[in-house]
């Protein structure tokens, strides 16, 4: 198959130059500035002819930007004339194609290269590189349809229908080639959207699966506000005990407050000397509390003692999350750029992640350190959801196995929220665009997208408004609390509830707590009734 829009060939005739010019002039008329599209009283070609050569093009009554310009040069031979013919596109069309291709590939190729540095080149990237070329190949056949027709007609003009060599006719408009062209484009389009065929798509509104209207009520519809705690106006972080009977709050006042949830009483206040408290965890024994602060230090508190908190130093930036293992022996803490694992009893640092072998990529003699950020820690502190380079990864902190969420290439999207399910099987990401909010659920084992859900637009999207409760995903919006089944990706419950941040759940799934921003921040506790 001929692809490039350029063709050269030679026609030899025993006629004199005068006869050759006469034969051409019989089929070529002078160019006109305006020609009616309805007029058929004209020669098949228009252009200019002189003793050195000609430049002509076929007169057509339909649009074809790939119509070839035909240029000819006469050469005298001992026994006749050789007509050297060149067919090519108009310079303006060539310039437009070069501009279009350079603009397209100046955007797509750098994106592909940068994705390659992260080790994650999505299949859509290859498709965006190849699709314009495929489309261009299909449409360039319009040039060859015209070029082969003009070659055949020029030969007939000069030789009276006798060809110097057999010419293969290429008719772009045969049914077979039309089907091939559209088939190729159809295959490309299907490939572009293939992944979407197995993905659940739907839109959620304030009325979707409302608990007040549901025929089969979810157990989460039984959650009601049982307590509003108003004694900590500067609260910035909260944690619930395993059975939801105790709540610990920390704030910008550098203080920890311990609450009895059933009666709403403040049981104790623990004052820190520095650092806004940003993360809290309660040990399974119910008497040890760990806090992480903006002063880059971790504090371990004993609620049965008046002794000062034990300090753990080592983080290079403010603490974002703390988790305690179910056996109460291991503490996992994270800041934006690192994860540390500690022995909770001794305070000994056991590991720091990542190391250079994880984040450093070598290209020849050049080493590139990839960006690392911890987005979430599982409740038991055994797994982490991290951003490594432009990749979204589920990292097993014990085995160091890394599962790559291949479809969530962060070069192409910016996340406003991301959460990892307790079993590490599902990753939920939230992104906000100009006119929509999109929730996506990913299968961490395969890296494939399971569901894409359009949510009510929210202009207030704090990082901690989304949380997992076992295999249920909860997300708080200004007026609703949505609950999804992470296995089926279906909306299970929709509760009328003021927006909460720092959404927190008890280990036994009996209580939900969150911070409500009013004139003075409040803590609301919901329990199953």
TrEMBL record:
WD repeat segments: 235-269, 270-311, 312-352
Transmembrane regions: 92-113, 125-145, 178-195
Alphabetized CDD domains for the sequence: WD40 (cd00200)
The protein, known as: Uncharacterized protein
Database matches in InterPro entries: WD40/YVTN_repeat-like_dom_sf, WD40_PAC1, WD40_repeat_CS, WD40_rpt
Entry keyword annotation includes Disulfide bond: no
Alphabetically ordered keywords of this record: Membrane, Repeat, Transmembrane, Transmembrane helix, WD repeat
Keyword Cell wall biogenesis/degradation applies: no
Top-level taxonomy: Bacteria, Bacillati, Cyanobacteriota, Cyanophyceae, Desertifilales
């Amino acid at each position: 198959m001929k692809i490039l829009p350029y063709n050269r060939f030679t026609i030899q005739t025993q006629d004199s130059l005068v006869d050759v010019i006469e034969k051409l002039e019989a089929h070529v008329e002078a160019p006109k500035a305006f020609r009616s599209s309805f007029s058929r009283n004209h020669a098949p070609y228009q252009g200019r002819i002189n003793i050195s050569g000609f430049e002509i093009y076929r007169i057509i009554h339909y649009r074809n930007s790939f119509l070839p310009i035909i240029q000819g040069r006469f050469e005298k031979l001992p026994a006749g004339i050789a007509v050297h013919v060149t067919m090519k596109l108009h310079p303006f069309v060539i310039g437009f194609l070069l501009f279009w291709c350079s603009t397209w590939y100046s955007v797509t190729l750098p994106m592909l290269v940068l994705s390659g540095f992260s080790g994650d080149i999505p299949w859509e990237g290859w498709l965006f590189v190849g699709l314009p070329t495929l489309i261009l190949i299909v449409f360039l056949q319009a040039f060859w349809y015209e070029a082969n027709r003009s070659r055949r007609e020029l030969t007939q003009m000069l030789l009276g229908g006798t060809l110097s060599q057999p010419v293969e006719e290429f008719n772009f408009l045969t049914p077979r080639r039309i089907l091939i062209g559209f088939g190729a484009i159809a295959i490309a389009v299907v490939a572009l959207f293939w992944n979407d065929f197995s993905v659940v798509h739907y839109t959620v509104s304030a009325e979707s699966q409302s608990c007040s209207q549901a025929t089969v009520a979810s157990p989460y519809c039984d959650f009601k506000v049982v307590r509003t705690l108003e004694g900590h106006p500067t609260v910035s972080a909260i944690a619930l005990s395993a059975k939801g009977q105790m709540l610990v709050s920390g704030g910008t006042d550098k203080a920890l407050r311990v609450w009895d949830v059933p009666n709403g009483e403040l049981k104790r206040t623990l004052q820190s000397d520095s650092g806004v408290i940003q993360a809290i965890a309660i040990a399974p024994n119910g008497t040890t509390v760990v806090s992480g602060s903006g002063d880059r230090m971790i504090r371990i508190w004993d609620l049965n003692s008046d002794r000062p908190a034990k300090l753990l130093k080592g983080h290079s930036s403010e603490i974002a999350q703390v988790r305690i293992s179910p056996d109460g022996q291991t503490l996992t803490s994270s800041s934006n750029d690192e994860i540390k694992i500690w022995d909770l009893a001794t305070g000994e640092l056991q590991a720091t992640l990542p190391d250079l072998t994880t984040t450093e990529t070598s290209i020849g003699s050049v080493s590139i350190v990839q960006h690392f950020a911890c987005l979430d820690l599982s409740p038991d502190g055994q797994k982490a959801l991290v951003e490594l380079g432009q990749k979204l990864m589920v990292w097993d902190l014990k085995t160091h196995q890394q599962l790559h969420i291949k479809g969530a290439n962060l070069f192409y999207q910016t996340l406003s929220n991301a959460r990892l399910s307790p079993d590490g099987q599902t990753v939920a990401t939230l992104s906000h665009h100009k006119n929509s909010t999109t929730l996506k659920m990913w299968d961490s084992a395969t890296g494939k997208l399971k569901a894409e859900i359009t949510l009510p637009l929210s202009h207030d999207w704090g990082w901690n408004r989304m949380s997992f409760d076992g295999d249920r995903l909860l997300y708080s919006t200004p007026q609703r609390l949505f609950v999804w089944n992470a296995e089926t990706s279906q909306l299970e419950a929709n509760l009328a509830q003021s927006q909460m941040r720092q959404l927190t759940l008890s280990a036994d799934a009996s209580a939900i707590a969150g911070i409500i921003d009013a004139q003075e921040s409040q803590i609301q506790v919901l329990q199953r009734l």
